[in-house]
Amino acid sequence: MVSRVTNFLTPHRRSRRGFTLIEASLTTIIVGTGVLGMMGLFTHCTTQNRVAARLTTGMMLTHNIQECLANLSFFDPETAGTTFGDEAGETLQSYDDVDDFDGMSFSPPIDSLRQECEDLSKYTQTVSVVPVYGNGLDSNSGATLTIPKTAYTGAVRVRVVVTYQAGEGTSVEEVYRQSWIRVNN
I need a labelling partner for 80 at 20 to 30 A (CA). Which of 36, 100, 126, 183 fits? Predict the structure, then answer.
């Protein structure tokens, strides 16, 4: 009988198998925190990828305008520089000098061959051409013109602004802006 009491009083030793509730809870919290952090990272990476894709498209669309203007005359061959901007009756395909593009907006944007890029219809290219002094390239760089457009200076600043609008009723977002100087050879 004594042996029974002794067995009853001594704790039974069991071999441990599995995790305790506290260990399982801590593991769940640690893994959950890691997963939430990764989800935030994926969201941020997706947003940055979208911004980078728009920037790349904006750069390409700006270079398309630069290519359009590369082989054009500085002056209109027919009017010998007496007008600034497109001449009466000219269309995009018949523009023959740099200043013809002044004030033009293209939506859908155009490629370097002046063809519309229908698949990029959410983008708009806006072009401005203003005269600048050859010895003061920062002239006419602001919103207010200090040199009239009709003045001959021998150089012009071409500025292209590419914007993106996701859909009707959404805000217009500037994606890319570039300017360069074109001189009369």
Answer: 126
